[in-house]
Amino acid sequence: MSHFPSSSICFIVIISILVSNSTLLCNGGKTSVYVRKAEKSVEMPLHSDVFQAPSGYNAPQQVHITQGDHVGKAVIVSWVTEDEPGSNTVVYWRENSKEKKKAMGNVYTYKFYNYTSGFIHHCTIRNLEYDTKYYYVVGDRNSMRKFWFTTPPQVGPDVPYTFGIMGDLGQTYASNITLTHYENNPEKGQAVLFVGDLSYADNHPNHDNVRWDTWARFVERSAAYQPWIWTAGNHEIDFAPEIGETKPFKPYTHRYHVPYRASQSTAPFWYSIKRASAYIIVLSSYSAYGKYTPQNQWLEQELPKVNRSETPWLIVLTHSPWYNSYNYHYMEGETMRVMYEPWFVEHKVDIVLSGHVHAYERSERVSNIAYNIMNGECRPVKDLSAPVYITIGDGGNIEGLANNMTEPQPEYSAYREASFGHAIFDIKNRTHARYSWHRNHDGYAVEADSMWFFNRFWHPVDESSQ
Ligand SMILES: *[C@@H]1O[C@H](CO)[C@@H](O)[C@H](O)[C@H]1NC(C)=O
Ligand SMILES: *[C@@H]1O[C@H](CO)[C@@H](O)[C@H](O)[C@H]1NC(C)=O
Ligand SMILES: *[C@@H]1O[C@H](CO)[C@@H](O)[C@H](O)[C@H]1NC(C)=O
Ligand SMILES: *[C@@H]1O[C@H](CO)[C@@H](O)[C@H](O)[C@H]1NC(C)=O
Ligand SMILES: *[C@@H]1O[C@H](CO)[C@@H](O)[C@H](O)[C@H]1NC(C)=O
Ligand SMILES: [Fe+2]
């Protein structure tokens, strides 16, 4: 590992700038010149079209799916009924097959201050075939609703697969545009990696949990048809002792089930899945992660299990970014970085996806693991074994854009822009993945930022020299 060779060039540039009395700064990467009009993100009102409940007595609503096991042969189907528990069964069948199967789920309710939830159903469908389209029906005689999904191909090193990436979505008009752009992206995402902060219900008086319901109705048009892989953000904590709500993550854990036990995790906030050629590790910025904690112990045992001959692409999701050059949530991810960054470098993580900061940023491949309190080596350095860090908390939530950046742009920061958007991670084979970020203000196919990822295990070549 060595410092950026560019730092000495920078030095020379600074000297010459001083000499020439110019006002140029010695910036690291690129700060986009695109300046989005700073506007408040307005939440869509309760009567909006995207929030309408389906018609019919006790009709299933808020339907969403996620992966239900470790390898992609199971799906968790979740939905809510408002009038009575109703049917707990999912009926499903393979496309072109007449044989209908049934799976039984469980129903849950919870109270939050003076809110009482509807009947929340979770049903895991198992033993599915890979790479197969299935139809499924929830509800009963009163009102049935039919959806479909396609299972991923069998886990293997050269299986192409396309992930969408969104974070900090919320339920504003901008959120609706982000989701629409993701849906209309010609590079069709097959599953969503969601980096936390879902509904922003906690920005309402008493964390009005009706906003958890409206959010789930809003995203149903995508989440009922392709799995969204969930990460817990700070807006999922819902810790409100002032109204007697002291159990963190209560609404989130009742509404969003994840297959954490399949990866020997002991809590739904950190877990892993394999999907096609990717190994995805979800971490929790808001659960203890220090030495001896359950999450720490789990991750230490988890990383050596990743077999890059089986799943070449190692992707980590965590809500709070470690490398963030905006003046928001500055250094909030620092303690987790100190704990886990050496492991990420050792195990050659390809990409770390985070949200939290309501803007977009992509890092160079850097690490900052040499520091030992005594040696003063506390600057990020170029490191080809290190992941690229992406901050993509730009879904468009009610809190608005983060547009105040630290200046000059740090060398580790390759690209940053304060715009709402989504990204696509398109795995081609074991060596190549095409990554692109799309800002909401452009046409669906426009890539505002993009790069070819070279796999850190199979093709650890420096991409920045492309
Ligand atoms: C809950 O309490 C708030 C005020 O404390 C009130 O505005 C709201 O209508 C109540 N909601 C329900 C469902 O009772
Ligand atoms: C949300 O987006 C969808 C799809 O573009 C559109 O049909 C709908 O009218 C939008 N709703 C709102 C409230 O913006
Ligand atoms: C890793 O995966 C490959 C391909 O599936 C398999 O042949 C090999 O045995 C696995 N290695 C270990 C240590 O499990
Ligand atoms: C940007 O953030 C810095 C550091 O927190 C602060 O000093 C400055 O006033 C902010 N600028 C604006 C325009 O808000
Ligand atoms: C992997 O995909 C890249 C990009 O599509 C392509 O250039 C390369 O030839 C592929 N490698 C193999 C072994 O097919
Ligand atoms: Fe957040």
Automatic annotation (TrEMBL):
The keyword Transferase does not apply. GO terms for molecular function: acid phosphatase activity; metal ion binding. Keywords: Glycoprotein, Hydrolase, Iron, Metal-binding, Signal, Zinc. InterPro entries: Calcineurin-like_PHP, Metallo-depent_PP-like, MPP_PAP, PAPs-like, PAPs_C, PAPs_N, Purple_acid_Pase-like_N. Residues 1-22 form the signal peptide. It is an enzyme of class 3 (hydrolase). Its EC number is 3.1.3.2. Residues 60-151 form the Purple acid phosphatase N-terminal domain. SUPFAM superfamilies: Metallo-dependent phosphatases, Purple acid phosphatase, N-terminal domain. Residues 386-445 form the Purple acid phosphatase C-terminal domain. It catalyses: a phosphate monoester + H2O = an alcohol + phosphate. Its cofactor is Zn(2+); Fe cation. PANTHER family: ACID PHOSPHATASE RELATED, PURPLE ACID PHOSPHATASE 10. This is Purple acid phosphatase.
